[in-house]
Design brief:
Blueprint lengths: L1 H20 L32 E12 L6 H4 L11 H10 L5 E2 L10 E2 L1 H7 L2 E8 L7 E8 L6 E13 L4 E17 L2 E6 L2 E3 H8 L3 E2 L9 E2 H6 L6 E5 L14 H20 L4
Length: about 280
């Protein structure tokens, strides 16, 4: 009789714990107010571009490093929350749901070959065959297989392809982002290496970014989205390439401090072009 009572009590406790661990559908209010408009946000409106108004343009490639303090908004949170995700999780969820289209990496950074979410994850799943030795006698060798799965937290950078142009109708230097590319940082032979994953068309991705919240460290009441972060240039970056006759990156002809100075020179030349158009 006692055994039956103990068994009944144990089962009851297990069922009670299981019910408590379930996520309820009607969760209690956990905010100052009900925010129902965030899912209806639209991308920031962009001015119309006429070919006749573009009197000068230049294409540049930038890199946004998440490890910089001002760019941490792209990397966090590590653990996804209901309405708050990191940049790479937003992108991967959209790719998986068919809301975005990824394009394969090419030498010219053109969006030519579409790839699927499964292909992206499959390429980052490594299988390594290795021979190991047992730590105890007779110390024989044995074959082992090491699986490395795709880890989104290793995505630490974004490459941005953008066009700067001077609009003579507005008398203003303006910019349009054309494509973005998440980049993983990996360690090989004790050295840090970069591995670009895929390209995304930024104009085609703006609807998703406009509905993805970003943490605003200055004022939590002012809700930011990734579309606003890109559109308002709320990130820190450096130029790693400009359109040139040799089609080469800065790293191919400059290193170290010289590469940083070259990056700053490119940015300075674009703004000086605009200033030199005016007479005082």
């Amino acid at each position: 009789m006692n055994k039956l009572f103990v068994a009944f009590l144990t089962i009851s406790m297990m069922l009670s714990i299981g019910l408590q661990a379930q996520i309820i559908d009607d969760a209690p209010k956990d905010a100052l107010y009900e925010d129902e408009n965030i899912i209806n946000k639209e991308p920031l409106p962009l001015p119309t571009i006429r070919a006749a108004d573009v009197m000068w343009s230049k294409r540049v490639w930038r890199e946004i490093d998440f490890r910089q303090k001002f760019n941490q908004k792209f990397y966090f949170p590590i653990e996804t929350q209901a309405s708050w995700k990191s940049f790479i999780v937003v992108v991967l969820d959209a790719l998986k749901a068919g809301e975005m289209q990824a394009y394969d990496i090419s030498n010219t950074d053109e969006l030519l070959v579409p790839i699927t979410y499964s292909e992206i994850v499959g390429r980052q799943t490594d299988t390594l065959h290795n021979i190991m030795r047992r730590p105890y006698p007779p110390y024989e060798e044995y074959d082992t297989v090491i699986y490395t799965e795709f880890d989104p937290t290793k995505v630490m950078r974004i490459r941005v392809k953008e066009d700067w142009y001077f609009d003579k109708q507005r008398s203003q230097m303006m910019v349009r982002i054309q494509a973005i590319c998440p980049v993983m940082l990996k360690e090989r032979n004790g050295q840090e290496v970069t591995e670009p994953l895929f390209w995304l068309s930024y104009p085609e991705s703006r609807d998703v970014f406009a509905q993805s919240l970003v943490f605003n460290r200055e004022n939590a009441a002012m809700r930011l989205t990734f579309d606003e972060v890109f559109g308002k240039r709320l990130f820190d970056s450096y130029v790693y390439k400009e359109a040139n006759v040799f089609d080469r990156r800065i790293s191919q002809y400059a290193t170290g401090i010289d590469a940083l100075l070259e990056s700053e020179r490119i940015k300075r030349d674009m703004f000086e072009f605009e200033e030199n158009l005016w007479e005082y």
